[in-house]
Structures are given as structure tokens and as C-alpha cells.
Amino acid sequence: MTPSDLNPEFPLFEFDPDPAAILNPQVKLRLENPPQRWVLCFFREVLDSLAQSGELRKVGELRSEAGANPIYQVEQDGTSLLVMHPGVGAPLAVGFMEEAISCGGRHFIACGGCGVLKRDIAVGHPVVITSAVRDEGTSYHYLPPTREAAASPAAVAALEETLRNRKVDYRLGKSWTTDAIYRETKARRTRRVEEGCLVVEMEASAFFALAQFRGVTCGQVVYGGDLVTPEGWDFRDWIARGDVRTALFWLAVEACSKLG
User: Fold this and answer.
1) What's the number of domains the chain is made of?
2) Can you tell me the distance from the alpha carbon of 176 to that of 204, in angstroms, rounded to the nearest whole number?
3) What residues contact residue 217 under an 8 Å CB cut-off, 6+ apart?
4) pTM for the full predicted model
5) In Å, what is the CA distance from 231 to each residue of 110, 119, 185, 186?
6) What is each CA distance from 36 to 40, 92, 167, 256, in whole angstroms?
7) Mind listing the pLDDT tens digit of every residue in the chain (260 residues)?
8) Is position 17 within any domain?
9) Which residue of 7, 43, 61, 106 is most buried, as measured by CB atoms within 10 A?
10) Range list of H helices, 88-197
11) Torsions phi, psi of 244, nearest 5?
């Protein structure tokens, strides 16, 4: 791609397919055979608790201006996986996932919470994201402009198989990924619902775009959190769901162990 191919009016749409940038991730782990399966878990308190109980073992860390971000190892039915918190928001989460790929990661499952756009999605109800509307900026550096980015079919299948086997009721559908949590207006919310979005969050479309660009597998499962409707916002005490958050983490681990 040459400069003439770029759109000077809209820098976000200046997609450049060159896989090598000026700055590239070069993180390595001090493990003889680093696992290729990673769980990206947004529940910091769950990771801290499992680390304290010895169910997770710290094997490294990534760093940002927010400080050290531990990397843990966990075993699932004889399969070794790595686990980390990916940070909040698409730019940081994708940066950490890039570094995980440089450590040898090839298969990723993310688990977290979300806002729900429909009242019939209860607090704590799992949703497997199949695709996400790209209303954020990071994904446009990994894929040409399109309206959506799709999860890896293998990852969606692994999540569905795990949830079915565990007899966990779940929804399957599209998400709205946005950078601006305080700009979820009534009109934008209505448009997202009309195009099939069930939930809203901040990272999925960027995760999926990165995965396609780097040729790795990525899926995401979230649980229903706060309610976002034209009538107003309802917190629904969604963060205080420790049992749901821990259970969703282990479901993500099990699903990720099936990949590859």
C-alpha cells in the first residue's frame, strides 16, 4: 500500500496490511514450552482469589503504565493454559493480546461482563458473541473498514459445546463494541438493536479483528450485566456476582482447552 491508497480525510480508514510495524511485540516467557491456549479474563478479583488459593500459578507478567499484569498458568484435564487480565478497553486489551501472541499464543477465549440491550437477558446470563459491530477505533488498524468483525467459528463452537455439556443456558448473538461508555445514546442504541445486537461491551470487535489479522483463534463469552434501554440505565448490581464470574472463568478455561 502506498500513501496514495490512503484516505487523508478519514485517518481511521487508512488500513495498511503490512504485518510489520515500526514497533512490534517481542515478549517472551521463561517457559520451556509456552502453552498456545490463553484465557483473557476481565475479572481481576477472580484471578487474585484463584492465585491466592494456588489454583493459578504465576509464570510471568506483562507491563503497562498501569503497572504489572500477571500471567498465570492453569491445568485443565491435562491441558496447560495461560491466563491474564487483558486490561479494559480495546487499545490496551489488543496490545496485551498482541504480546500474548508473541509469547506463542494461538488460541484465545475471553470472558467478561457486558451491558445488555434487551430486558429479557437476565443478570448473570451467559452470551456467546458471534460477531461485533465495530464502533471502536482499534479494529480498523487490523482489518479494512467493514461494519462487523466475526469471532472464530472454532471458538464459538467450543464455547457452545462447553455450555451445553455443563447444562448452562446461554444466548448466542451479536455485540456492539464501543469506546465511549457515556455516548450510548438512544438513537445509537436503537440502531444497534435493529441490526441484531444483544449486548454492548468495549473489546470484542477489536479482539476478533486482531485474531483474523494474526491468523489465531479467538472467541468471547460474557454475562448479562447492567441494562441499557431508552428508559434509562439500570446498574442491576451486576458486578456483585462473584459466583457467576468464577463459574464463567472456569467455563472459558474448559472451552479454551478444546481448541487446537
Assistant:
1) 1
2) 8
3) 106, 107, 108, 152, 154, 155, 211, 259, 260
4) 0.94
5) 30, 11, 11, 9
6) 13, 21, 27, 10
7) 444 455 557 888 889 999 989 999 988 888 888 999 999 999 999 999 999 999 999 999 998 888 999 999 999 999 999 999 999 999 999 999 999 999 999 999 999 999 999 999 999 999 999 999 999 999 999 999 999 999 999 999 999 999 999 999 999 999 999 999 999 999 999 999 999 999 999 999 999 999 999 999 999 999 999 999 888 888 888 777 789 999 999 999 999 999 99
8) no
9) 43
10) 90-102, 153-165, 186-194
11) -65, -45
Q: Which residues contact 152 (CB under 8 A, 6 or more apart)?
A: 208, 211, 217, 218, 219
205's enclosing H/E stretch is helix 204-214
Side-chain-side CA neighbours of residue 4 (13 Å): 0
Residue listed under C-alpha cell 450510548: 184
Q: Are strands 217-229 and 232-234 parallel, antiparallel or unpaired?
A: antiparallel
In-domain check, residue 180:
yes
Which amino acid belongs to residue 35?
A: P
Under 8 Å CB-to-CB from 13, ≥6 apart: which residues? 7, 140, 145
* Domain CATH code at residue 65: 3.40.50.1580
Q: Domain span at residue 252?
A: 32-257
